[in-house]
Amino acid sequence: MGGPSRGVLFFVMFGCLIGQAQQGSSHFALKDGDCVVFYGDSITEQKLYTSDVEEFVLTRFPRWKVSFVHSGVGGDKVSGGRAGPIDLRLERDLLAYQPTVVTIMLGMNDGYTRPNNPAILATFADGYRHIVEVIQSKAPGVRLLLIKPSPYDDVTRSVSFPGGYNSVLQSFGEFIGDLAHEKRLQTADLNTPVVAALAKAKDLDASLSTTLIPDRVHPGTGVHWVMAEAILKTWDAPAVVTSVTLDATKLQIAVEALNSRITRLRRDKNSLTWTQDDEALPLPLASSDADPFLDLAVRSSDLVDALDREILSVKGLPPAKYRMTIDDRVVGTFASEQLAAGINLALLDTPMREQAFLVAFDTERKNDIAKARFGLVEKEMDGLSQEAADKLSRLELRAVARQRQDAQPVARRYSLSVTP
Fold first, then answer.
1. Residue 13 pLDDT > 60
2. Helix or strand or coil: residue 199?
3. 3-class secondary-structure state, position 194
4. Residue range 206-220: mean pLDDT, rounded
5. Residues 6+ positions from 282 with CB-CB distance below 8 Å
6. Which of 116-125, 284-293, 359-368 has the lowest average pLDDT?
7. What is the reported pLDDT for 378?
């Protein structure tokens, strides 16, 4: 077995091993300076649920320096696949990056889309156990997250055989849960919440629900956010982006300003203005008009409540309707009662959400470069290919710097004024 290529080593030296520890969420499983490797098959190769997790960390902890490596290969099983046998894959595509955190999601291909078979389950279990034990022996300090495989869609379409193929994946998930318990590792269940979301989506819109996992295997963008939510909840990710409560009568922060700092709070006869300097951004979740598939998935899950609460409450305003602007952009008109109860700004078209979309764009561009580099690294490279891999590594590091720069907090000017 050969060692990692120079293209991998370049990225390890200058990509994964950067960042100093900073104060953050005491409960969230990831920490500043971590290097996370997502390992799996084509569903991981889609770079969707993995990018969603990456975007959460970038927007929620913008001062952190966490590196993300996406090592999914289409068709992979616990034995490996087209990119090489499992032991080569583990060395080159996982251990070479010296990760501190690894997630593993395999199983969709291991059942061969056939009914439950004890021999197939035993082969999967032996192979999966081998993966875990190799990682633990060669990287004993790594924090492992074992992921129960996402579902084959037996919800919005009829099953192919009695019990359906998803029952096979669920049996794989039961083994993974048992192994995690045995090894005292974390496990995330991506099957149960997605099945529940598909069932709810089918009740809401039966025809559109069939498009959430178009080929019954590879989820679309909306379902990937549900999958990312399951991982992030397992990691105790914070639900709150920011939470600010103002008292218009006393011109002070009445209750709290979580992840935010309020200055220049002023009131005149018909308006209230202030400057808000937040420490985090909302998630880059597109509106229902822009992405109806994401909208259906959001309405079929608790994604917003679980991960995207950017709450503003303004109490003590005289009864009236108030126009809210942020950096001179009108974001909505609200009754004083609505403002007192609290509004989730994450659901509005705000400058903060626009900034989060920029971070998501940066992430997509960075991962396009990473995909091209990964495609070279997984092959036997000649001199020209090696030069290209090194150049892509440098471009990837520049793209990471752009991500982090665009995620940095910006002070925003708020205004509430009485509408005619």
1. no
2. helix
3. helix
4. 97
5. 59, 241, 308, 310, 345, 346, 350, 352, 353, 356
6. 284-293
7. 74
Average pLDDT over residues 372-381: 80
Distance CA 419, CA 316 (A): 17
pLDDT higher than 50, residue 334? yes
370 burial via Cβ count (<10 Å: 0-12, 13-18, 19+): buried
Q: What's the rounded Cα separation, in Å, for the pair 397 and 378?
A: 19
Residues belonging to the chain: 420
The answer to whether the beta carbons of residues 371 and 236 sit under 8 Å apart is no
Structural domains of the chain, ranges and CATH numbers in brackets = 6-238 (3.40.50.1110)
Alpha carbon 306 to its chain's center: 13
Residue 185 neighbours by CB under 8 Å, 6+ apart: 132, 144, 145, 146, 179
Q: Please state the rounded mean pLDDT for residues 338-361.
A: 97
Whole-number Å distance between alpha carbons of 220 and 111? 22
Per-residue DSSP letter, 141:
T
Strands 240-247 and 309-315: parallel
Are 385 and 88 a contacting pair, CB within 8 Å? Answer: no
Give which of 371, 359, 314 is closest to 62, Cα–Cα.
359
Q: Which of 269, 251, 253 is closest to 261 using CA atoms?
A: 253
What integer pLDDT is reported at residue 289 of this predicted model? 82
**Residue carrying the six token digits 């891999």:** 389
* Cα–Cα dist 235/229, whole Å: 10
> E strands, 82-157, where?
84-85, 101-105, 143-148
Find all residues with CB under 8 Å of 400, minimum gap 6, and list them: 15, 67, 366
Can you give the C-alpha Rg of the chain in angstroms? 23
pTM: 0.93
Identify the band that residue 187 occupies on the pLDDT scale cut at 50, 70 and 90.
very high
CB 156 within 8 A of CB 211: no
The yes-or-no verdict on residue 23 having pLDDT over 70 is no
Question: Helices 86-93 and 351-377, interaxial angle, to 10°?
Answer: 130
Q: How many CA atoms lie within 13 A of 22 on its CB side?
A: 12
E-assigned strands of 175-295?
186-189, 240-247, 252-258, 260-267, 271-278
Q: What is the DSSP letter of 81?
A: E
**Digit-coded pLDDT (tens) for 91-114:** 999 999 999 999 999 999 999 999
Two structure tokens written together for 80: 């490996």
